[in-house]
Amino acid sequence: MKRRWLILGLLGLALTTAVVNAQLSQDFAGELLNNPSGRALVQAFGALKTGYLHDVNTQDLIRGAIHGMVGSLNDPFTSYIEPKAAAFDTQQMSGHYEGIGAVLTPHNRQTGKGVEILTVYRGGPADKAGIKRGDLFLEVDGVDVSDKTASDVADLVRGPKGTTVHLTMRRPGDPQPLQFAVQRDTIKVVDVSSTMLPDHVGYVALSSFNNQKINDQLTQQVDTLKKEGATSLILDLRDNPGGLLTEAIDVSDDFLSHGDIVFQRARGVTQRLASADPQQLFSGPMVVLVNHNSASASEIVSAALQDNGRAKVVGERTFGKGVAQSVVSLSDGGQLRYVSFEWLTPDRTNIQKKGITPDIMATDTRYPNTISVDGRGANPGQTISIVVDGKTVGTTKADSDGAFQFVTLGPRPQVSGVQGQAIVNLNGDHALKVAYDTVLKEVQASAAGSSANASH
Fold first, then answer.
1. Helix residue spans in 228-366 (DSSP H)
2. Which of 148, 213, 312, 321 is catalytic?
3. Which of 231, 251, 265, 358 maximizes the CB count within 10 A of its CB?
4. Model pLDDT for residues 34-93, shown as the tens digit of each residue
5. At what angle do helices 3-24 and 245-255 cross, to 10 degrees?
């Protein structure tokens, strides 16, 4: 990370903290009690504590009130994060967590219930214990989790380094459940992966910006690609939901030698938030790959490279999150995340709800479309064929009331068991193939320009 931006990030954090402390020193408790609705809130709390039929949990009541207050803003980017989730998010942001070293995913992708192993990190605790991709969770430390969500199970599986978690799993093809005792360890969070494509095209993917080590990991991966002979680069930001503003600035600066990176507008005042310095991590031709799930920090990087003419953007129109949040740590260990400013591209464009339009449109074909059918009126037990464009895509049976459901679910995505190693398929990934062809044209154009300059 370039020290200049690290200092800026810490300075911004210090200023935000000072403002928050100043706000909290005001008599908001008095303001609450002087407001009829505020007094009503206290009255409702007292009535439920003393008169409700069953005992009530004070924390649950108060946290419910905070959720309600935040919900009244009807802002999807303002939220209250409860203490346990906030603590884990903070740990993840530091670049590591304590757990078993596996990625969990819903088993039933329609309901989100039931959890299976998507990836086991090689050499991690789960791998050493013998857990494999596809294993389905039945129990965690004796607690039935067969109908839980991935988030619920992850909360139970995580725990302090050196402690043991006992798992009961079902493995496809095995008639009996399997028992595992897994000793938790510190797991490094790696959000950057790379591989080398033909013709010396380096490929690097960022899955998130919510990690203070993103720029360090990117630097390491790109340096490795350069040593392996990469002369051009594809930066894949598809499905990257964003994260830390400082990391987005650093990543943008890695590829820029000049120009603005991002502007900030708060309550009508616009100011430059960051601009590039001459030092570059990679100066060769490059393309940025995005899809409709690329958001926030991903869009900051994409816009910075696009507006400055540094890279063509290929893929789908991005999500369109042009606002940023401040984070306040609360006294209960939770966090309040609220929208505090909007950010603008180097061309002073606000992309909120509009997204970034790629220079070259290319559909993300990695995962097939899901077909979902809910129907009724069939005979009980009747077999129904689902036909799309004259082709039968599957069958289902009606229940005793004549109702039926059908959902097609594509294959699980391939994820490498080696953190930092990307698995890609040029033939089955249309957008990646377009990005690859585009960057090769950029290489050819660059070579032609260099040849013309040499002839002069």
1. 245-255, 297-307
2. 321
3. 251
4. 999 999 999 999 999 999 999 999 999 999 999 999 999 999 999 999 998 888 888 888
5. 160
Q: Which of 296, 298, 302, 364 is catalytic?
A: 296
Q: Is 305 in a helix, a strand, or coil?
A: helix
> Domain-by-domain residue ranges, the chain?
96-188, 192-366+415-443, 372-407
Query: How many whole angstroms separate alpha carbon 282 and alpha carbon 286?
Result: 9
Tokens of 242: 């964003």
Q: Where are the alpha helices (DSSP H) in 291-389?
A: 297-307
Domain 192-366+415-443: give its CATH code.
3.90.226.10
Quick check: is 191 catalytic? no
Q: Are strands 312-315 and 192-197 parallel, antiparallel or unpaired?
A: unpaired
Longest CA–CA span in the chain (Å) reads 90
- Among 135, 250, 260, 307, which one carries the catalytic annotation? 307
Phi, psi of 179 (to 5 degrees): -110, 135
Measured CA distances, 189 to 11, 119, 249, 297, 388 (Å): 26, 14, 20, 18, 42
Instruction: Give me the torsion for CA of 335, 338, 344, 349, rounded to 10°.
Output: 140
310 pLDDT above the threshold of 60:
yes
Share of the chain above pLDDT 70, in %: 91
Q: Known catalytic residue: 113? A: no
Of 130-139, 214-223, 395-404, the least confident: 395-404
Q: What confidence tier does 410 reach under pLDDT thresholds 50, 70, 90? A: low
Annotation says 307 is catalytic: yes
Cα 116–chain centre separation: 19
Residue 420's identity, in one-letter code, is G
Cα separation, 169 vs 129, in Å, equals 12
Q: Which two tokens stand for residue 351?
A: 């992309």
Give yes or no for residue 237 having a pLDDT over 50.
yes
